[in-house]
Amino acid sequence: MTHTKTSMGEALPKLGLHLDEEQARLAGLNNTEIARQLDANLEGIVGGSVLEDTEELPVRVRLSNQNRADLNQVASLNLIPNNTNSNQNQNQIVNGNHRLVPGMLVKPL
Question: How far, CA to CA in Å, does 21 sit from each of 2, 29, 108?
């Protein structure tokens, strides 16, 4: 055998959260909105661009690496409700049950 190819990548951690769905609903949030906001904070969103010579480079805005690595920081993020009239304490939405779970990144062949 002179050549092999694998489709499995490295195992990456995933963040597992147990949400109090009733508290989330009262806060004007749903699972999709919570996931979207966590993804934006952790993976980032393109917030603009910088022109370098003739190339336009995207600028990604996200939490610092230190804050992204701290589960307590992630659990204490302020989420923005869809319903701006909500007075629910957002820290009650994540009920303290957060953990890193194994994940697998699969790369296409």
Answer: 54, 9, 35
Task: Say how far apart CA 90 and CA 76 lie, in whole Å.
Answer: 8
Instruction: List, in order, residues 6 or more apart from 105 with CB less than 8 Å away.
Output: 9, 10, 11, 12
Task: Tell me the CATH class for 16-88.
Answer: alpha beta
Per-residue pLDDT tens for 35-53? 899 899 989 999 999 999 9
Q: Nearest CA to 90 among 47, 40, 33?
A: 33
* Single pTM value for the model: 0.63
Residue 79 DSSP one-character state: P
Partner residues linked to 14 by β-bridges: 101
